[in-house]
TrEMBL record, chain A:
Compartments, as annotated in UniProt: Cell membrane
Modified residues (FMN phosphoryl threonine): 222
Name of this protein: Na(+)-translocating NADH-quinone reductase subunit C
Purpose of the protein: NQR complex catalyzes the reduction of ubiquinone-1 to ubiquinol by two successive reactions, coupled with the transport of Na(+) ions from the cytoplasm to the periplasm. NqrA to NqrE are probably involved in the second step, the conversion of ubisemiquinone to ubiquinol.
Record text on subunit structure and interactions: Composed of six subunits; NqrA, NqrB, NqrC, NqrD, NqrE and NqrF.
Protein family according to the UniProt entry: Belongs to the NqrC family.
Enzymatic reactions: a ubiquinone + n Na(+)(in) + NADH + H(+) = a ubiquinol + n Na(+)(out) + NAD(+)
Domain named FMN-binding: residues: 138-239
GO molecular function, one term: FMN binding
Designated gene of the protein: nqrC
Automatic annotation (TrEMBL), chain B:
Function: NQR complex catalyzes the reduction of ubiquinone-1 to ubiquinol by two successive reactions, coupled with the transport of Na(+) ions from the cytoplasm to the periplasm. NqrA to NqrE are probably involved in the second step, the conversion of ubisemiquinone to ubiquinol.
Membrane topology: Multi-pass membrane protein
Record's keyword annotation contains Transmembrane: yes
Protein's gene: nqrD
Keywords for the protein's UniProt record, in alphabetical order: Cell inner membrane, Cell membrane, Ion transport, Membrane, NAD, Sodium, Sodium transport, Translocase, Transmembrane, Transmembrane helix, Transport, Ubiquinone
GO CC aspect terms: endomembrane system; plasma membrane
Entry's Gene Ontology BP terms: sodium ion transport
Superkingdom field: Bacteria
Protein name: Na(+)-translocating NADH-quinone reductase subunit D
InterPro entries: NqrD (IPR011292), NqrDE/RnfAE (IPR003667)
Length: 250, 215
């Protein structure tokens, strides 16, 4: 071919054509697969919610296994009795409350609108679980989770996940040994909604003391831990009025 | 006529042993450390890299005469990035849990030195068919090492292979565990991957003395 590939004009045109071709190719891929990807994300959310209330397929002390994807829809229907949307003072039932995008709600709240707060009520072996979804900031990117509470606002189980925390350090928030520490802690300190802090040097590494509102931190993951503490505290305060009504019923 | 000439065959076979990208050229070490704690993740990473490198080499080779040499590195990056995003999207749609395990690392394929290295060194100077073979050969050599490391790390670290408990149950104390065997948790940490790579290099060079560099 007798094209002078060193000319500036050729370089610019080549770059422009390449960007258009690659861009449209990627757009085509993304839009044709997005339905399938969204479906996967939906099932994952159901798995996470069930995991927090103790419905999972954990095999041993270290494993974190969800209900398998083919069973999750049925199990979700079986265990999650009610899904609520709390909007200011209004509480409505909505079977698709788990699809509410927390990030979007947060932006809308900043714009002055009333925030929709989803809450899931599960029932297993006669006891009730109030599952609060939450979202916060880790070191690199978003972290999120689900915390299951009982009638006395004591944690019965949690599930945490993250987008891009450091593998081996902050990423360990989704490890079993970390998540299991939260079970038995109360989010109340007296009558204050104190949440549960991820604390360094709390003199209780094996987490025997359950009334200190603290769990042992992960070494080398200070900022992820702080983000997690802040996330829990903020979220329980958002749900304060509803949680008060649960306590009052007791 | 055979499908592959002798020269073509060596394009595929050389990187498997005497010109292995990991153990001889020492490229792509980062991903070999990061994702080899499980055999399954190793296999998927190997296949993803094989796809990206094979396709990328062909694309770059087809464009080798029209790529302006001033921006050729950028063009290479765009080709890799586009292919990687496609792999990522396909994994998210059809192997969601796996894509979560690989999450960060799929993106890291872009920075895998083997890919840019083969584009620069081979695809820019050779035809598409030979480039394709070169890509498959190099990624197979890379994948082979990944799978060997993944095999030993998962077997010795968790006592499983592809998730199956091949050594018995560590909690119930069956199989090997009944006679006092314990999993070596250290195998799951990345430094052990480096040590396994070191052992492979040692075995390989003591079998083929020609590979030992002079100091």
């Amino acid at each position: 071919m007798a094209v002078n590939t060193d000319k500036n004009s050729y370089t610019v045109i080549f770059a422009a054509v390449m960007v258009v071709i690659v861009g449209s190719l990627l757009a085509f891929f993304a839009s044709s697969l997005s339905e399938k990807i969204q479906e996967n994300q939906r099932l994952e959310k159901q798995q996470n919610i069930l995991y927090a209330m103790g419905v999972n397929e954990n095999e041993d002390e270290g494993s974190v296994n969800f209900v398998s994807t083919d069973k999750v829809a049925g199990e979700f229907e079986k265990y999650i009795k009610e899904q609520l949307v709390i909007e200011g003072d209004q509480i409505t039932k909505d079977d698709n409350a788990y699809l509410i995008d927390l990030q979007k709600q947060e932006t809308e709240a900043k714009a002055g609108k009333t925030r929709k707060l989803p809450l899931f009520i599960g029932e297993k072996d006669g006891s009730k679980y109030y599952i609060i979804p939450m979202r916060g900031k880790g070191l690199w990117d978003a972290i999120w989770g689900f915390v299951a509470l009982d009638n006395n606002l004591v944690v019965q189980g949690v599930y945490f996940d993250h987008k891009g925390e450091t593998p081996g350090l902050g990423a360990n928030i989704k490890q079993r040994y970390f998540m299991d520490d939260f079970t038995g802690e109360s989010i109340l300190k007296g009558t204050q909604y104190a949440g549960i802090a991820v604390a360094k040097g709390n003199n209780d590494p094996t987490n025997q003391i359950k009334d200190d509102n603290e769990v042992d931190a992960l070494a080398g993951a200070t900022i992820t831990g702080n983000g997690l503490s802040a996330m829990i505290k903020e979220s329980v305060n958002l749900y304060k009025s509803y949680l008060e009504s649960i306590r009052a019923k007791n | 006529m055979a499908l592959l000439s002798k020269k073509d065959t060596s394009l595929i076979l050389d990187p498997l042993a005497d010109n292995n990208p990991i153990t001889i050229q020492v490229l792509g070490i980062c991903s070999a450390l990061a994702i080899t704690a499980e055999l399954k993740a190793s296999i998927v990473m190997a296949l993803s890299v094989m796809f990206v490198l094979g396709m990328g080499n062909v694309v770059i080779s087809l464009m080798r005469n029209i790529i302006p040499s001033k921006i050729r590195i950028i063009v290479q990056l765009v080709v890799v990035a586009a292919l990687v995003i496609m792999v990522d999207q396909v994994l998210k749609a059809f192997a969601y849990e796996l894509s979560k395990t690989l999450s960060v690392f799929v993106g890291l394929i872009i920075t895998n030195c083997i890919i840019m290295g083969r584009f620069e060194a081979f695809a820019l100077a050779n035809g598409p068919w030979r480039s394709f073979l070169d890509g498959i050969g190099n990624s197979a050599g890379y994948g082979l090492i990944l799978i060997i490391i993944g095999f030993f790390r998962e077997l010795l670290g968790s006592g499983t292979l592809l998730g199956f408990k091949v050594l018995g149950d560590p909690i119930e104390k069956t199989g090997l565990y009944a006679i006092g065997y314990e999993n070596n948790g250290f195998m799951l940490l990345s430094p052990m991957a480096l040590i396994v790579v070191g052992l492979i290099i040692w075995v390989q060079r003591s079998r083929n003395k020609a590979l030992i560099e002079e100091n």
